[in-house]
Design brief:
Strand order of the largest sheet: 1-2-3-4-5
CATH topology of the largest domain: Alpha-D-Glucose-1,6-Bisphosphate, Chain A, domain 4
Largest sheet: 5 strands, antiparallel
Distance between the termini: 42 Å
Shape: elongated
Mean pLDDT: 84
Number of domains: 2
Low-confidence stretches: 11-27
Order of helices and strands: HHEEEEEH
Number of strands: 5
Length: 136
């Protein structure tokens, strides 16, 4: 009896993981899972607006710290690859200050704040990778 082929090729369509070779060819999620989880963990103090694990984008909603109610922040985290490296994470921080009443004006964000947030995410991602290796 002749083996019939599949519309999706010999291995079928693997959308939930499985064969490493298939994942390398692009059928899996295209971002580093440790960076993804670390970004969610690090930004968890802010309300989440949207998260796209396939595109690697996490967007928060506006957040005002209790200590400074006249300013608010919004962050976007971009996971740019599958490797756990410093160039695979980018964070954009937006800051506004109250201009009176319910009006807000854009304000400058210190570049050191962005770097500190990216470093915090990388540190958390490394912790998650170590924890994962220890649990196997």
């Amino acid at each position: 009896m002749k083996k019939q082929g599949s519309v999706f090729g010999d291995g079928g369509l693997g959308i939930f993981g499985g064969d490493e070779k298939k994942q390398e060819s692009g059928s899996g999620i295209g971002v580093n899972s440790f960076l993804w989880r670390a970004t969610l963990d690090t930004l968890s103090f802010m309300p989440l607006n949207s998260a796209d694990p396939f595109g690697g984008v996490i967007i928060t909603d506006w957040y005002s710290p209790a200590e400074t109610p006249n300013e608010r922040f919004k962050m976007t985290g971009y996971i740019l690859g599958t490797a756990l490296r410093s160039d695979a994470i980018k964070v954009a921080i937006f800051r506004q200050v109250r201009a009176g009443g319910n009006e807000w004006a854009d304000a400058v964000v210190d570049p050191k704040t962005v770097t500190a947030m990216e470093d915090s995410i990388l540190t958390r991602a490394r912790q998650l990778r170590i924890d994962s290796a220890n649990n196997q």
